[in-house]
TrEMBL record, chain A:
Organism listed in the record: Pseudogulbenkiania ferrooxidans 2002
Keyword hit for Glycoprotein: no
E.C. designation(s): 7.1.1.9
TM helices/strands, residue ranges: 46-66, 87-107, 146-169, 181-201, 221-246, 266-284
GO CC aspect terms: plasma membrane
Pfam families recorded: COX3
Keyword rRNA-binding: no
Protein family per UniProt: Belongs to the cytochrome c oxidase subunit 3 family.
Enzyme class name: translocase
Stated name of the protein: cytochrome-c oxidase
Main subcellular location: membrane
Keywords: Membrane, Translocase, Transmembrane, Transmembrane helix
GO BP term (any one): aerobic electron transport chain
Automatic annotation (TrEMBL), chain B:
Protein's recorded name: Cytochrome c oxidase subunit 2
Cellular compartments per GO CC: cell outer membrane; plasma membrane
Protein source organism: Pseudogulbenkiania ferrooxidans 2002
Family listed: Belongs to the cytochrome c oxidase subunit 2 family.
Taxonomic path: Bacteria, Pseudomonadati, Pseudomonadota, Betaproteobacteria, Neisseriales
Record keywords: Copper, Electron transport, Heme, Iron, Membrane, Metal-binding, Oxidoreductase, Respiratory chain, Translocase, Transmembrane, Transmembrane helix, Transport
UniProtKB/TrEMBL annotation, chain C:
Protein name: Cytochrome c oxidase subunit 1
Molecular function per GO: cytochrome-c oxidase activity; heme binding; metal ion binding; oxidoreductase activity
Lineage of source species: Bacteria, Pseudomonadati, Pseudomonadota, Betaproteobacteria, Neisseriales
E.C. no: 7.1.1.9
InterPro entries: Cyt_c_oxase-like_su1_dom, Cyt_c_oxase-like_su1_sf, Cyt_C_Oxase_1, Cyt_c_Oxase_su1_BS, Cyt_c_oxase_su1_dom, Cyt_c_oxidase_su1_bac
Amino acid sequence: MESVSHQTHYFVPQPSRWPVVGALALFCLGLGAALAVNGVGFGKVSLGVGFAILFYMLFGWFGDVIRESLKGEYHGKEDTSFRWGMGWFIFSEVMFFAAFFGALFYVRTISVPELGNFEHKLLYPDFAAAWPLSTGPGITQPYQAMAAWGLPAINTLILLSSGATLTWAHWGLIQGKRASLTIGLGATVLLGVLFLSLQAYEYRHAMHELNLTLASGAYGMTFYMLTGFHGMHVLLGAIILAVVWLRVMRGHFNPEHHFAFEAAAWYWHFVDVVWLLLFTLVYWL
Amino acid sequence: MSGKRILLSMLGGVGTVYAADFTFQPPVTPVARQIYDLHSLLLLITVTIFIVVFGVMFYAILRHRKSLGHRARPFHENTTVEIIWTVIPFLILVGMAWPATKAVLAQKSTRAEDMTIKITGYQWKWRYDYLDDGVGFVSHLATPTEALHSASAKGTHYLLEVDEPLVVPTGKKVRLLLTANDVIHSWWVPSLGVKQDAIPGFVRDAWFLVDKPGVYRGQCAELCGKDHGFMPIVVDARTPEDYAVWLAARKKLAAASADDPNKVWALADLKARGEKVFQQNCVACHQANGKGIPGAFPALDGSPIATKDKPAHIDIVLNGSKRNPAMAAWGKQLSDTDIAAVITYERNAWGNHTGDVVQPKDIKAARGGKA
Amino acid sequence: MAISTTAGHAPHAHGKPTGLWRWLAATNHKDIGSMYLWFSFTMFLSGGVMALCIRAELFQPGLQFFQPELFNQLTTLHGLVMVFGAIMPAFTGLANWLLPLMIGAPDMAFARMNNWSFWLLPPAAALLLISFFVPGGAAAAGWTLYAPLATQMGMGMDLTIFAIHILGVSSIMGSINIIVTILNLRAPGMTMMKMPMFAWASLITAYLIIAVMPVLAGVVTMVLTDRHFGTHFFNAAGGGDPVMYQHIFWFFGHPEVYIMALPAFGIVSHIIPTFSRKPLFGYTSMVYATSSIAVLSFMVWAHHMFTTGMPATAQLFFMYATMLIAVPTGVKVFNWIGTMWQGSMSFETPMLFAVGFVCLFTIGGLSGVTLSVAAVDIQLQDTYYVVAHFHYVLVAGALFSLFAAIYYWFPKMTGKMYSEPLGKFHFWWSMIWFNVTFFPMHFLGLAGMPRRIPDYALQFTDFNRIASIGAFCFGLGQLIFLYNMLRSIRHGQAAPHKPWEGAETLEWQIPTPAPYHSFVEAPHVEAGDNGVIHSMTGGAHH
Ligand code: HEA
Ligand code: HEA
Ligand code: CUA
Ligand SMILES: [Cu+2]
């Protein structure tokens, strides 16, 4: 990533109010969440206020960034910074998911088998370890596991094709084909929404027909936590892409200068890859 | 300790402390001895490294200073030296790893035991079950609460004394199976060279073979909540003959004190019994005056559950709280009689004057006939 | 690409903003750096007061001042506040202040986000401190927040969990900024293998932070769902395992201790060459040693868990891997001594702290190696020996290096000289009382005193008294530092351009105090190892 070498100054923004506003937002969110999980009424209020401030901050901050971008403040160096920044941000996300994949690995290959081994007959004479249907000696409510080759497989296809439509849109952007850009990007967002609707349907099915909940031991908790955090990322990605779509409609990008688009695309592909891992490790194997 | 003595010990003098205080407690098992020697070896190596390395540094500090007119020689690389000081530490480490590996393997060879004891950590006491002999009991801190607050004198074994020590025979390989009931505890007796976490819901093992009769003391070594500092371990190692005598006596005692689950108790008897149970199990949180600790542990004095809703009272003591795991399911630890007693006590102690008597058979019924 | 003039453009022409707004809305790396440093010092004092409460309670056997649950809260918050509030932000603050100056960058790569990273810290600290006042009090499960004890706590635990989330966001953003600044904004001529060691150390530290803070966020989230949403991550009934918490936590936790050590190594690698008036010995091997420490730090985490009962093979693996870290760390120690060897040394306060650092850090490192031997660790785990070990590497390590750094760069930051006699006094005072406080803890641990207990058996009394007296004296000494700083900022003598004869890195090439906007345009430099500047052209500032 060699930057443009003739650039002699680097854009440093003016003092900005958004960071403190954002800090206030997270304070309200943190406090609110801690109170809310303990059933203190004020918690919900604080959460609401926090979200309101957060959205205000996001609008304001991204608005500033977009204005600066349109004014032409960002050149080669700034662009490179954004690329590195986005890349490392995604790396941090990878590590967040790694914690939960690590937990899945651990319960499946270490703790559940151990609970069923000879030594532990001392504590649990009747427990026989099996994945996914018997994931803990204290799980009394029977549940069923989610089958891989129904909805999840369809969702895999959806996400994969959304990756393809996104790439198609990117090609359109680079080659100046506006139609493929707008249609491709729009289709990606819609596929994301479709994915989320199907996942919502899947959760309903899991909870009502399979009796599978967060409390269904090692299988239920890793299933919901992993797919849930992934779903939140799809939601976020879809919102980002929708914003990018709006910006496309307003003509914010040109073939050389469209890092916002690319960042959103990187994020989307990252979410895609996480899903493939999920599909393999949570549903399939 | 007087100011002068403090000064003495601070000046690097031995002062008030004995040489024995500067290292491990005297080991009494083969593994503990191995650890002791290993540590002495490590100490020797690390102190030597320190002296050599900092000898060189202080030499430079004394000689190569500007105030002495020393001129800097601006070299800044020397591959040979770099290789040497990478390889030598590596070799030292290999030398350390060898005896260390042997010690780890010795520690881990837990099988071929002569007897097995199951140890369960509770907040904040230990339960010992002699699996081969069917004897089991709970071991509590014996230091009175007044001594903590300096209202009474502190004995020699302040905080390291229990009402009922773990008695083991010398010369026998004892295998320990450890688990816990609520949070992680760690069973540690320094002289035995054993420290093993007791993990709730899991079983871990460890072993020791004491070769010298004596009383060895240790403590829980994993933060387990409020009274983590107050759950000591005392191991009383006796010759096999003395051990056999103790075991026989202990078995008889157990048979004699077994309760008849169908006995119908009078209020006063049950309340007296319940007070003892309460002292041993519940005071830590709910306090002797029944007022609890506001914000953390509810008051039982005047609580609706302890004065009105009897089934709820039985339920929470038997099955624990769904909301706060600190309130354990005591049904797993205490007998029907003990639970009946403690509930009766709570309903009639402090300002609670319900006059209710809960009989052991009520508890049996509440358990749904299950054990 | 010569950088001849600054004429003709105005993006940086805005002057120094004033008033409160300057700090709230700051985008200037120096302002943000200063805020980090002051915040960190405040946290150090609060954490220190908690430490003094601990030491007061432990002055003699019996319960004097605090009930056990409050004692546990103090221990927990002391650890959390010191680690996340004092040491980590201090290093980020220094990186903010110094990196752009050292590598010739106009500012941090994301100046606005930089401010957010900082301003997230006060809310997180507030959540932590508020938790003392909620029903049930603050978290009391140790700074490691081990489950399932952590699932028993009250609301204070939830506040702590969310505080950790916010701290995580802050330090990840801060680290992204550091990495991107270093990778992308170096002045022409400042190649990676010529960068000063502090830049290298910050780069690698930032990488560690991004790799492990999300893992910490993940594991405390699992505690949260175990507490409130019915999951069984750390509960055997549902197939979870309390030990899994420890694995995930220490996968974060061990790199975390190097996050608090590597920047210290970087700082010392500036100060020792300066005051030895010699280039750093073995620059290249320093870079490689730092990198290998970072890589190794991901493979040793279970040395904190030898007593959980892992299989022998796992114990051996983690033991060997841990011991191995002594090799690259040793290389660093030897390189520092190699730098001092045949130098022309003088011992101003920064150098005193740096030498003190090398000496005491090594003691902590050697006790670390003792702990790494699994069989011996079985006797020492969760005793005061461990407390002694980590205060040698954290207080005499991280904290001393920070003092060294502040004294060293104080003239450049403020344009004033600090009082040298007071600085020297601060060093000797700290050096003596530090050892009085923490050296006896080795003996306490060996003799069998567990950590995290509010009361102890009688045979531990003497050493505890010594430690408590030492702690109060050590703490008092820190007020001297505060006084020296405050007084010198106002009334200190004006500092010369380059107060240290041997200082050769880029930040010493610009005026003192560093102008508000240094390097508006990238300077062109010719540099040697460790960022030593041979010549510089351009680099306008105002
Ligand atoms: C800055 C922080 C820091 C640093 C740098 C280190 C460095 C090291 N630490 Fe430490 N450690 C902590 C902070 C740190 N630690 C903390 C906070 C805890 C406790 C956490 C808790 O439970 O709350 C802890 C706990 C801890 C334990 C667990 C103890 C227990 O709970 O049972 C272990 C065990 O292996 C360990 C080992 C080491 C080792 C081998 C090093 C090595 O990196 C040291 C390497 C350095 C040297 C060895 C000296 C210089 C080298 C030479 C001069 C070369 C020659 C030397 C030889 C050949 C030996 N540490
Ligand atoms: C990261 C850095 C760091 C730092 C800098 C310190 C600094 C100190 N620590 Fe800390 N400590 C930890 C990290 C740190 N600690 C961690 C991670 C733990 C483990 C927690 C756990 O178990 O979970 C721990 C645990 C710990 C314990 C064990 C507690 C227990 O197990 O119950 C003790 C006990 O003595 C202790 C003492 C001290 C002391 C005396 C200082 C001193 O250096 C502090 C000096 C500073 C001051 C005193 C403040 C400045 C002065 C004033 C505000 C003026 C007022 C002063 C006077 C009037 C005298 N620490
Ligand atoms: Cu039990 Cu600590
Ligand atoms: Cu470690």
